[in-house]
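Summary: Need help interpreting a holo structure output

Steps to reproduce:
1. Submit the protein chain below together with the SMILES for pyridoxal-5'-phosphate.
2. Request a joint structure prediction with the ligand placed.
3. Inspect the structure token block that comes back.

Expected: a single structure record containing both the chain and the bound molecule.
Actual: see attached output.

Input attached:
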Amino acid sequence: MLDIKVTKIAAPKPKPEGPLGFGKTFTDHMFLMDYTEERGWHDPRIQPYGDLTLSPSARVLHYSQEMFEGMKAYKGEDGKTYLFRPEMNAKRANITCERICFPQLPVEDFIQAVSALVKLDADWIPTQPGTSLYIRPFIISTEASLGLDPSKKCLFMVILSPSGLYYKDGLEPVSIWVEDDYVRAVRGGVGFAKTGGNYAAALAAQAKANKAGYDQVLWLDGVERKYIEEVGSMNIFFKIDGKVVTPALNGSILPGVTRDSVLTLCRDWGLPVEEQRITIEELAEAHRAGKLEEAFGTGTAAVIIPVGKLCYKDEVFTISDGKTGPLSKRLYDTVTGIQCGKLEDKFGWRVTV
Ligand SMILES: *Cc1c(COP(=O)(O)O)cnc(C)c1O
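--- attached output ---
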């Protein structure tokens, strides 16, 4: 158990009014805990949200040595506050930490830090259906030297951001650009880890897709540019000829909590499910044969994003007539229903704060 020292804000900030958007406003408090080689993790504390003081030579600023997580808190109709599968985020944080040579953070400490902060700022959790409190735990290297060896000094933090409706009127399909020049990750690299550099490296392709009139990028594998990997900050699923298909975790794909939940639900519903290698050419073939029934992305921010249109080289595929397919809708309703306490939690995914 962490002995968290709490310093409360003198006067709570006014809550935002109007559309919240994503990641724009932050709550009254933040959690911090330092690590040094000599003392290990120490000085866990909650204090008013505010700027950090950091040496200009802090390694995070130069070598992007950082890990982050993304999760959410939900306010149930019963007034309780829920987290969704927080131990999965805590375990994934440690997988990222291992890959980028950060110290491990005990799973129970991660969850305690998140829970304590969410509890303190619980009146910031929006209550409108579809809204939630986005939680951003992260670790940065604060070691003040430009050497390139594993950092002996770092900082774990948690910040919270009320997040608005992703969709204005129900699920809205997005359009996807299949990127066949830039790549996101290769096996042996850091594609499976939630670490900052991956996202800086993805911006150019995202800008290219937006310029071509598409919402998001679908990445292909980094070697042959042939196998489908994932979308921006979401995993990708297809329904082909009655079967639910998603790329297998191969070391370059981020193992999403939502991906795992969707796989579990589909199997529970008795749908044929396959985690496999799938080429963009096989997908195009399925589309030409009229067998590509649905496509959707999965991730914490939007839960399920139906894909209405996909562009690969010069070919544009329209999927489920550009509308939200029945499986996407059923998954969205089920996952969000479990998250906010409206549906039975058969798998024990909900954690009360
Ligand atoms: C976070 C993330 C996902 C989705 O993971 P969830 O745990 O479902 O939110 C997928 N792909 C990438 C690249 C990500 O960063």
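--- end attachment ---

Reviewer comment: The chain is about 25% helix and 30% strand. The mean pLDDT is 95.
Status: needs-info
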